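MIP18 family-like domain-containing protein (Ligilactobacillus pobuzihii), 108 aa
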Amino acid sequence: MNEKARTTQEIKDDILAHLQTVIDPELGIDIVNLGLIYNIELDDDGTCLIEMTLTTIGCPLTNILADMVESALKDVAEIKDVDVEFIWEPEWTIDRMTRYAKMALGIH
C-alpha cells in the first residue's frame, strides 16, 4: 500500500504536537503554550529549523531545552535533522502565552 504524502500543514501540525511534549522545567508548561516557538521551517532535505526564545536572556536551560526539542522531533518522519536557534527579538512577553498557560500559572 502506498502512503499518501502529508501536506505541509499536516507536517507542521505534527511538529507542533511533538513540541507540546517539551515542558519548560522551571514553569511546568510546554514551550508551545508558553509562546516560546517563533518559527518552524522544514526544508526539502529534511532539516527542521526551530526558532525559539526563552522567558529570560541568559537562561541556564538553553542547551537542555534544545536537546529536549531535538529529542521530541526525532519521531516526525519527514525530519532528518533539527537545528534549534535561539532568538531574542521580538522579546518574549506573557502576551505570547496561550490562555491555557496563563490560567495554569495563575496569570489573569
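The longest strand covers residues 37-42. The beta strands are 37-42, 47-52, 81-86. ok done for today
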